[in-house]
Amino acid sequence: MAEDPEPAALDDSPDGNADDLDASPQADEDAKPAPLPVPDVGAARAALDATITLKGHVDLENNLLSEHLMRLMMRSGSGDNMPIQSLDSLEELDEVYEEVEENQGFNPLGGRTSSSRMSYNIPSPSSDGRGGPGAYRPSWMRGTHEMERGLSMEERCDIAVAETKSIQDQMNIYRQESERILDELQAAYDESELRIGEIRRDIGDFGREVMAEAAERGARVASSEHVLKFLQDRIKTTRFTIEKLRERNATLHGNIAKTEAALEIKKDLSDVLHAVDFDQLAIQKQQLEGRLRDRDKEVFRLKGENLKTEKALEKAQAQLGVLSEKYKIIKATIIERKPQLQRVKEDMAKALETRGKARDAYAQAVKDRDQSKGEKKPSVMEYLGLKKKVSDLQQIAHAMHMKVEVADLTSTQLGVKLRKAIRSSQK
């Protein structure tokens, strides 16, 4: 759209006329500047993106170079535990680079004498990672004859290879540390598994030896005697194992001391001894180790037999205690049943006396019957009376006979128990 022409300025001079007034608007239109071209937004945005990408690459390159330089400084003994970001001024950075030059063998005539012979454009801490004219360069890199330049592809590759090697070394260190920690954790895990297995075995043994006995008695709680016995057995087993390990440790220490002494002797006689002598010593060492192993086996066997003997002795003592309790009970029972035995004996005597009387009466009756064969026979009532008397006497004799048998059996049982108790007490 065309813009409205601005009104011409009035001329205050007295020589002005109408022609001048008519020509002034045309002159103003000719003197107006041409409109600016419209910028291409897409191209500007693409250029901005390319610039941002380039800046990211440059920042990454600068960070990599800074880390590499710091590693070189720390390797040479300068700048320990002092990152580049902690430098507050360019003077401090100059001092650090001067230390690097001194430690790495700086040559003023031929530049640095390092193996890589690379010239780096290091940005200063205040330049925000930007290179170019405003970038900071060390004193040995700021020669008047040298122009500012960036890193070449070969230099970048060298730095990348050095950083890759450093990272691989760190990875190897971390891997070794991880393997060590993994081995420690595996050892702890195996030890925990062994301990869990031992605890499970102890639980099973406790259930078989203690809780099973309580279940047989019908009790919900195990007796304290069985629990104490179980704990004492476990303590004895643990002490035996500790003693065995202690003896084994002492044996190993003795072997180590003997070996060290033999090594000292061999060191002293190293000029005198020959290969044959060393072979003879090795054979003798093997023979002595074999004898030592045989002695250890014999000692372990004797200890096992001693342990078995102790267990058998404890079992015999327990059985002796049980038999002693039974002997006391039987003795008390015998003392309690002595009056009963006396009464049984009296009943037996009475029964024997009654049986003798009945036998005499029966013999007298038979005799009377034989004598009365030729005489008058008894009447029916007399016969029935005699028959009843004989039946009563037979019942009495049978009852007395049963009492005598019971008394004999009781006496026999008491005699057997008494003999067993006396025999067990004598043992």
Automatic annotation (TrEMBL):
UniProt feature coiled coil, ranges: 171-202, 228-262
Chain ranges of the CCDC113/CCDC96 coiled-coil domain: 237-405
Gene Ontology CC terms: axoneme; ciliary basal body
Taxonomic lineage from the root: Eukaryota, Viridiplantae, Streptophyta, Embryophyta, Bryophyta
Composition bias type Acidic residues, residue spans: 12-22
Gene Ontology biological process terms in this record: cilium assembly
Annotated Polar residues bias: 112-122
Name this protein carries in UniProt: Cilia- and flagella-associated protein 263
InterPro entries: CC_CF (IPR051885), CCDC113/CCDC96_CC (IPR025254)
